[in-house]
User: Which sequence fits this backbone?
């Protein structure tokens, strides 16, 4: 009989994610045979934005998440630029790229050292390293000590990436400089020089420390190059416009199926959001985001549902997003699709972006225009597409009578951690968990490693806490049953274990009831 195990919440990620897996022995290997990913909070930002002035969008949507607010600010102003029929000046385009890039590099360093590497290390006998699950830790004491030291160094490096972004963004998180038609900052020679100094230091760290550490992890845990593949479908919207039209980008738009190297086009009209297994009204099922609605229902009234995350699909197919998807679609990294490939792709991407920023910043003109005037149309419909550190991000905007009449957001984690769809197909994270070997069911660290390789951001996917959830706990639920995971079991009355350093990053979230 399978054992059903629940990790709730999964720590060391942004927001609140519940993962339930069924584990059984198949061909002599104890492994995951079924999985469910549950976003336990409701995001109401789409409804908050209705009837507001369109220029509120970039400020409000950045509050969705404190880790990747820049991506939301950029997607919002891209939609506003399109709705207003304007093009931001080159200075604005470059500074938008620089703040986005700094945030991406910051996020990648944070993810590897502070959110994921901890899964593979026996750290010092102190908080936040202990208590932890002491299983399958393969590094010898000397290498462990080196990586722990790099953990500390990485805190400084990500702070410097954060500060580099604030040079042009004004502050991070939530830079106020993104506006329709451009950017509020005027570049200075001192700011450019300081930015370049930061980038040179960060590039040295990525090249000499981050990438070698990621490669060492992949070498020691080489079996994880065969774990966590999932469907192999990868999607990228593309980002970092290199010209005013956006036709040329550092990362191209595209998608691949089943690990192919053939990159296909992305027809935005084929994107829909399914809610069969989500706590939203059935009337909103399978809608394109341009006509989508966010209409929550009482979970008790929808017995098949198990998540506040919708299920985005492209032509009915689940797609994984993230650094691996971007690098694969761009032809920069195509070694494989797995836990370790996700880590390696992030490391290489961090270097690619940091090196690009070092050249972009030289394109700023001290006397150049930073913005053009944006006039809100009475009626308009537009979309802003970019990439967050965790993957493809889209904002769909509609304006009526000069105010926002509809706003729909599909975030990377909505793609990655989505529940099953109308056809019963799992979301990418759920699929990636299938077949994961689990040595000790009471300490399913292998499951957590697969989850962390996606770097889920539940604050982007869901928001607003259910009051009845009560206290915050780390739990494992052990029970025996059939292969189907009970989608209605919300109890927390089973054996509880803290599963390692939490490092929860709760930045400026409005968890209103």
Assistant:
């Amino acid at each position: 009989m399978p054992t059903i195990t629940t990790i709730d919440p999964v720590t060391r990620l942004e927001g609140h994610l519940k993962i339930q897996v069924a584990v059984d022995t198949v061909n002599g290997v104890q492994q995951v045979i079924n999985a469910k990913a549950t976003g336990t909070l409701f995001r109401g930002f789409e409804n908050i934005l209705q009837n507001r002035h369109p220029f509120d969008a970039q400020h409000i949507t950045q509050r969705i998440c404190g880790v990747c607010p820049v991506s939301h600010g950029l997607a919002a102003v891209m939609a506003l630029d399109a709705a207003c029929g304007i093009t931001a000046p080159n200075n604005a385009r470059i500074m938008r790229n620089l703040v986005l890039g700094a945030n991406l590099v910051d996020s990648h360093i944070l993810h590897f050292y502070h959110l994921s590497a901890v899964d593979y290390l026996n750290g010092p006998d102190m908080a936040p390293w202990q208590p932890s699950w002491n299983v399958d830790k393969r590094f010898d004491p000397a290498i462990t000590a080196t990586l722990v030291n790099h953990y500390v160094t990485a805190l400084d490096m990500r702070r410097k990436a954060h500060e580099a972004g604030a040079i042009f963004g004004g502050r991070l998180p939530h830079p106020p400089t993104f506006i329709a038609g451009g950017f509020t900052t005027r570049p200075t020679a001192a700011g450019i020089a300081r930015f370049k100094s930061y980038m040179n230091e960060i590039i040295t760290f990525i090249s000499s420390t981050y990438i070698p550490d990621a490669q060492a992890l992949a070498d020691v845990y080489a079996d994880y190059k065969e774990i966590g593949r999932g469907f192999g479908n990868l999607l990228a919207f593309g980002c970092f416009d290199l010209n005013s039209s956006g036709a040329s980008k550092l990362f191209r738009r595209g998608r691949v199926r089943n690990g192919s190297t053939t990159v296909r086009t992305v027809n935005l009209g084929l994107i829909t959001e399914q809610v069969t297994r989500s706590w939203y009204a059935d009337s909103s099922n399978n809608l394109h985001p341009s006509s989508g609605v966010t209409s929550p229902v009482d979970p008790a009234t929808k017995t098949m549902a198990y998540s506040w995350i919708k299920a985005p699909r492209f032509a009915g197919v689940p797609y994984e997003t993230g650094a691996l998807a971007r690098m694969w679609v761009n032809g920069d990294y195509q070694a494989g699709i797995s836990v370790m490939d996700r880590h390696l792709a992030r490391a290489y991407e961090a270097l690619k972006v940091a090196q690009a920023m070092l050249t972009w910043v030289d394109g700023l003109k001290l006397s150049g225009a930073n913005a053009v005037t944006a006039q809100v149309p009475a009626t308009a419909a537009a979309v802003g597409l970019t990439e967050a550190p965790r993957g493809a991000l889209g904002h769909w905007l509609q304006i009526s009578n000069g105010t926002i009449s509809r706003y729909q957001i599909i975030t990377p984690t909505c793609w990655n951690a989505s529940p099953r769809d109308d056809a019963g197909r799992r979301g990418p994270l759920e699929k990636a968990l299938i077949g994961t070997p689990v040595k000790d069911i009471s300490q399913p660290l292998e499951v957590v490693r697969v989850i962390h390789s996606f770097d889920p951001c539940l604050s982007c996917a869901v928001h607003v806490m259910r009051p009845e959830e009560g206290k915050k706990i780390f739990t494992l639920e052990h029970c025996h049953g059939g292969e189907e995971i009970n989608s209605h079991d919300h109890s927390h009355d089973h054996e509880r274990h803290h599963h390692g350093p939490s490092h929860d990053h709760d930045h400026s979230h409005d968890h209103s009831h």
User: Anything to note?
Assistant: DSSP finds twelve helices and 15 strands in the chain. The first helix runs from residue 45 to 49. Residues 463-467, 472-478, 486-513 have pLDDT under 50 and may be disordered.
